[in-house]
Amino acid sequence: MELNTTTKISEAVIRRLTDYLRCIRCAGEAGRDMLTSLEISERCGLNASIVRKDLAQFGAYGVKGMGYNVRDLTRQINKILGLDKLKDVVLVGAGHLGTAIIRYPGFADVNFNFIAAFDTDPEKIGKTIGYAKVYPLEELKPFIRKHAIQIVVLTVPSSEAQAIVNDLDPGYVKGVLNFTAVIFPPKQNNMFVHNIDLAKELEVISYCMKNCLSQGS
């Protein structure tokens, strides 16, 4: 089985692929060789037909009565998502959230390597978080150019976010994971920006607790 990795797909499908990958990886760690679309769908809270349709877009068709080969499908989805090669990442804002992000062990499993952090606090500069040394913020741009960094994770105060994003070199940086409360457009200075507001996620949970559970949906 060889998936078509050149197919353009929607962000919704990409997000489902990341869920499939986690389900398939867990199955592999549990010693499974094959996994059916029904098993994947149940683990991801989807309909099995959606799983089959998503994977079929890339030429993945399970063996009837057996499902998908776990090792092969893991390798191919990794290739689709660009996770088959190691990517160096830097973090801007070495506070509590930034420190927790760098220390999260799951990034190494999907080939993301935090090699440096940047901050304005003199007490943090020169220290090491995980394997990442903390540098002064003014060294961010030359560091990105020297190491050809394509991904930046932003965990600074919201008041500082816009200036930092504006100063990033789009000739190198192609993706920004933004954990501040500032909402950037998906494309900013020819960079893809993904906004994650943790407070917003709790707001969604609050709504669902109040409305969805009471409606039985």
Task: State the gist of this model.
The protein has nine helices and ten strands. The protein is of the alpha/beta class. It folds into two domains: 11-80, Arc Repressor Mutant, subunit A (Orthogonal Bundle), CATH 1.10.10.10; 87-200, NAD(P)-binding Rossmann-like Domain (Rossmann fold, 3-Layer(aba) Sandwich), CATH 3.40.50.720.
Verbal overview:
It contains nine helices and ten strands. By secondary structure, the protein is of the alpha/beta class. It has two domains: 70 residues, Orthogonal Bundle (Arc Repressor Mutant, subunit A), CATH 1.10.10; 114 residues, NAD(P)-binding Rossmann-like Domain (Rossmann fold). The two termini are 37 Å apart.
Question: Which properties best describe this structure?
Answer:
217 residues, alpha/beta, Arc Repressor Mutant, subunit A, Rossmann fold, 2 domains, two-stranded antiparallel ribbon, 41% helix, 18% strand, globular
The CATH superfamily name of the largest domain is NAD(P)-binding Rossmann-like Domain
Poorly predicted ranges (pLDDT <50, ≥5 residues)? none
Range of helix content: 40-55%
**Strand content of the residues, in percent?**
15-25%
Mean pLDDT: 91
Question: Which fold name is given in CATH as the topology of the largest domain?
Answer: Rossmann fold
Spatial ordering of strands, largest sheet:
5-6-4-3-7-8-10-9
How far is the first residue's CA from the last residue's CA?
37 Å
Given the structure, what is the number of helices?
A: 9
Number of strands: 10
Briefly, what CATH class of the largest domain?
A: Alpha Beta
Shape: globular
Evaluate the radius of gyration. 20 Å
**Overall number of structural domains:** 2
Largest sheet: 8 strands, mixed
Class inferred from helices and paired strands: alpha/beta
CATH architecture of the largest domain: 3-Layer(aba) Sandwich
